[in-house]
Task: inverse folding
């Protein structure tokens, strides 16, 4: 269980235990802490809470679930997908609350990329095999938290989630999940075009994250350097062209998005934090997949290519990235 997963568990733990049975899959020290002490979390006012839950490293012990929330980092999902598959029954809903473009992104879209299988995020098809799109609700997470030690969550900021069906239908199940998460304290928006919401968040993350990982600089320093900022803007304009082709139009100018980022002050992106902690980086879902879509559409992406190549080489040298080989 990571920081975002911990926030979901913390909020859902507020609901009467007679109405909800809360479980998590964990390993190692996190599993030990959750079994012994439950989840410890600190709210925005500095108050400490404990949420009891069932923790296991054997998914079959839990059986079929009504709702499964997936909030792992992208590099882990291929290994985790079979575990999630063991929790699914015919009516199980899988809320995918992850950064970047997911494997199911084009299953509900029409146009030039309808049904496109994304090699960058699911090269072997393992994820799609174990988590069929028919179970999926997309979710864009607008919150942050830290997990400085196993089984402990703090510095929770924000509570906004955008969710929707891949096919854009406002279904009973998306409304039911939205009601559940609203009841436990999240600010929910149900979207009729969740791919648009995913692409818009990606539009900012796909530059600040890798550039910060390359430079080891916080976002304010990146934006204070005119050459680096201009490079980020060039990457974003290429992504805008691709977005226009797939029906995810972004009308905002890159400079306006930079101003939003600047308003957040000096902070380290999640990718920079992963590099500093020696953890694999989420490069494929943020940058590699955008390049892949551009290639499919025959859109030239010299700046995206440069960003992907430089970040990939840096991360490979540090043992934080491995090129996926497709078995399709």
Result:
């Amino acid at each position: 269980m990571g920081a975002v997963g911990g926030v979901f568990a913390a909020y859902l733990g507020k609901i009467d235990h007679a109405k909800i049975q809360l479980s998590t899959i964990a390993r190692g020290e996190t599993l030990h802490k959750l079994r012994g002490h439950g989840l410890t979390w600190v709210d925005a006012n500095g108050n400490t809470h404990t949420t009891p839950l069932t923790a296991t490293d054997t998914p079959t012990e839990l059986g079929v679930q009504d709702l499964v929330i997936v909030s792992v980092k992208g590099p882990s999902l291929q290994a985790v997908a079979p575990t999630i598959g063991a929790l699914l029954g015919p009516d199980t809903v899988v809320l995918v609350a992850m950064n970047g473009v997911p494997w199911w992104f084009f299953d509900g879209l029409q146009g030039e990329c309808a049904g496109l299988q994304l090699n960058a995020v699911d090269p072997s098809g393992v994820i799609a095999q174990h988590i069929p799109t028919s179970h999926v609700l997309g979710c864009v997470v607008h919150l942050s938290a830290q997990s400085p030690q196993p089984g402990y969550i703090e510095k929770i900021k924000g509570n906004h989630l955008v969710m929707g069906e891949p096919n854009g239908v406002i279904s009973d199940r998306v409304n039911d999940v939205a009601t559940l998460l609203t009841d436990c304290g999240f600010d929910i928006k149900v979207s009729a075009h969740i791919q648009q919401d995913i692409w818009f968040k990606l539009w900012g993350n796909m530059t600040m994250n890798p550039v910060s990982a390359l430079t080891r600089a916080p976002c304010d320093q990146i934006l204070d350097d005119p050459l680096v900022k201009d490079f980020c803007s060039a990457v974003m304009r290429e992504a805008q062209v691709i977005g226009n082709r797939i029906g995810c139009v972004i009308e905002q100018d890159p400079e306006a998005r930079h101003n939003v980022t600047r308003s957040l002050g000096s902070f380290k992106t999640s990718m920079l934090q992963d590099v500093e902690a020696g953890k694999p980086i989420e490069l494929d879902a943020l940058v590699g997949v955008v390049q892949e879509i551009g290639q499919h559409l025959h859109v030239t992406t010299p700046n995206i290519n440069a960003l992907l190549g430089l970040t990939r080489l840096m991360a490979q040298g540090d043992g934080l990235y491995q090129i996926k080989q497709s078995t399709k």
Notes: The first strand starts at residue 23 and ends at 25. Residues 213 and 242 are 24 Å apart (CA to CA). Strands lie at 23-25, 39-42, 48-51, 54-56, 67-70, 93-96, 136-149, 152-164, 187-190.
